[in-house]
Write a structure and sequence with these properties.
5-stranded mixed beta sheet, about 425 residues, globular, 15 helices, Cytochrome p450, 3-stranded antiparallel beta sheet
Length: about 425
């Protein structure tokens, strides 16, 4: 069986859908990094994959991904009771509607401040600016100290961790360097916080600092820093979706008009969902077969790498009519097909609902509505989105100029509507 690691690196998001088409829709069997691999597709495959009796995800993370994206000792790499206790911490931090609302309010405030700054510049690269907005907002929301002169470096580091996890060469080494720098920064803050005599407090920072493992001991400063980054980094990663939202508002102006005139939370939620479905983010997720399994009459040996096709699922014409047409209204006519929308993959909460999904949708809807209600020009630039690059974004980073607020701007904080 030929190893597909190099074709994956060369073809990016299209590798797995192309292989599936060549197989006539059958599960794809191959090797990745020398390991036997089978790739599954479809809503039934989503349910199969996220059944923890079938697939162990935390055992499947390659060391380069742990060393860049998640960090050593993170919840994603734990088993048993320690995993359950740690994931309960994240559930409490990220699934509280009042916490989601508070974060969107921070994002709104920092977007307004940023726009005032942008208006004094000839042009700005939106990808870089959105990363700084989200870095400021999530640190303020989480109660993590961050000096203004450290915002740019911190934003670049948090972006690098995501940008380099699936790469080789300079991008990957930048990701490793960024993680080391941020772990050291946060571990020092943890030491300082624990040296204080004041009570633990209720901020995200204080709750993670005070978290105790199953044996009753505090997490080490390094592990505490790792878990703090697993709140900060995914929030700043919304930068990719925010720039895709700007791309959609530019390419599909009817969507912009809807967000300008409709204050209801449903329109922002539908737009955010369509951005997550339409634009490429995670190509697939992987795990290891926990036992002897069978899928569509095909045996899967224990320890086999099992991939779940996400990009292909979110663009499957059997699930999404005219899948390469950007159309937020598809989320206004009723609930999405069951287990058909999995753009981010799952997380420590269980199932394919990432623990930060509510935050992602709410923050993305807030930022998209803000952009729709701002006036700016989109100068000539390269807005192509290369599918070979994971994760990808418009080549130019999306440059805008002549930025102002619209005269009749109304920007209520946008909470997460649920389907």
């Amino acid at each position: 069986m030929v190893d597909s690691t190099l074709p994956l690196l060369l073809n990016g998001y299209t590798w797995l859908p192309d292989r599936r088409r060549r197989s006539g829709g059958a599960p794809v069997r191959t090797r990745l990094l020398g390991k036997k691999t089978i790739a599954l597709h479809g809503p039934a495959a989503v349910r199969f994959f996220y059944d923890e009796q079938h697939i162990h995800r935390h055992d499947a993370l390659p060391q380069p991904v742990i060393d860049t994206l998640f960090g050593r000792g993170a919840v994603h790499s734990l088993d048993g009771e320690r995993h359950q206790a740690r994931k309960a911490l994240f559930t409490g931090l990220l699934k509280d509607p009042s916490a989601v609302q508070a974060l969107t309010e921070h994002v709104s405030e920092h977007m307004k401040r940023a726009r005032a700054e942008w208006s004094r510049k000839n042009r700005v690269v939106l990808f870089d600016e959105m990363a700084k907005v989200l870095t400021r907002a999530v640190h303020a929301w989480a109660g993590v100290p961050l000096a203004e002169d450290a915002v740019g470096r911190t934003a670049r580091d948090l972006i690098s961790m995501v940008d380099g996890f699936a790469a080789v060469g300079p991008r990957h080494f930048r990701a490793r360097r960024a993680r080391r720098h941020q772990e050291e920064r946060l571990a020092a803050l943890v030491d300082s916080a624990r040296a204080e005599t004041e009570e633990a407090g209720t901020t995200v920072f204080r709750r993670i600092v005070a978290h105790r493992d199953t044996d009753g001991s505090l997490l080490t400063p390094h592990t505490t820093a790792v878990e703090l980054l697993n709140v900060l980094r995914p929030t700043v990663a919304i930068t990719w979706f925010a720039v895709f939202a700007a791309h959609a508002l530019h390419r599909y102006p009817d969507s912009r008009h809807t967000l300008m005139i409709d204050d209801g939370p449903r329109s922002g939620w539908a737009f955010a969902q369509e951005v997550r479905r339409f634009y490429p983010f995670a190509p697939f997720v992987g795990g290891l077969a926990a036992e002897q399994l069978e899928w569509s009459g095909r045996a899967i040996a224990p320890g086999t790498m099992v991939l779940l096709d996400l990009y292909g699922l979110d663009h499957d014409p059997d699930l999404w009519p005219d899948p390469y047409r950007f159309d937020p209204s598809r989320f206004l006519t009723g609930p999405a097909p069951a287990d058909a929308l999995v753009p981010q993959g799952g997380g420590p909460v269980g199932g394919h609902r990432c623990p930060g999904e509510d935050i992602t949708i709410a923050v993305l809807a807030t930022m998209a509505r803000f952009l729709a209600r701002s006036a700016y020009k989109v100068p000539e630039q390269d807005l192509r989105i290369p599918l070979r690059r994971i994760p990808t974004t418009p080549r130019s980073g999306f440059v805008i100029s002549d930025i102002t607020a619209l005269a009749d701007e109304r920007l209520p904080a946008t909470g997460a509507a649920r389907d």
